[in-house]
Amino acid sequence: MSHTPFHGYVAVQRRGLVAIPPALRKRHHLDEPGAQVEITERADGVLELRPTIALPAAQAWFWTPQWQEAEAEADADLAAGRSDHFDNGDDFMAALSADMDG
Predict the structure, then answer these.
(1) Calpha distance 39→34 (Å, rounded)
(2) For the chain, what is the domain count?
(3) Domain containing 92: what range?
(4) DSSP of the chain
(5) Predicted confidence band of residue 54 (pLDDT cuts 50, 70, 90)
(6) For 29-41, what is the mean pLDDT?
(7) Which of 11, 14, 77, 85 has the most CB atoms less than 10 A away?
């Protein structure tokens, strides 16, 4: 679905609160539980807002740079055909044993 990017003004409330327009909240899933907005101040004075969804702490390891690098490497190996396929657990275990035996 295509949409016109938003451009407009929002008021900054007394305590620094800013209301994100409803259409943007919905489009970027900021109306979902745990939604957050990351804010970055650029050197040129622009404030960037990025919608995010909080991750459960138990899943944070998956999003570390090291893990994501390993995921990308695994995806590249699969795409290049550098993988093995096993029809069952016994075949997998036999291949592991053969690799360990040399």
Answers:
(1) 16
(2) 2
(3) 57-101
(4) ---PPP----PBPTTS-BPPPHHHHHHTTTTSTTEEEEEEE-TTSPEEEEEEEPPPGGGGGGGSHHHHHHHHHHHHHHHTT-----SSHHHHHHHHHHHHH-
(5) confident
(6) 89
(7) 77
Phi, psi at 48, each rounded to 5°: -105, 135
> Interior CA angle at 48 toward 45 and 52, to 5°?
155
Would you say 66 and 72 are in contact if contact means Cβ atoms under 8 Å apart? no
Residues 63, 21 within the same domain: no
In which band, very low, low, confident or very high, does the pLDDT at 15 lie, cut at 50, 70 and 90?
very high
Q: What is the chain's length? A: 102
Q: Are residues 6 and 48 in the same domain?
A: yes
Per-residue pLDDT tens over the stretch 67-88: 999 999 999 999 999 999 999 9
Same domain, 50 and 61: no
1: pLDDT strictly greater than 70: no
In a shared domain, residues 5 and 21: yes
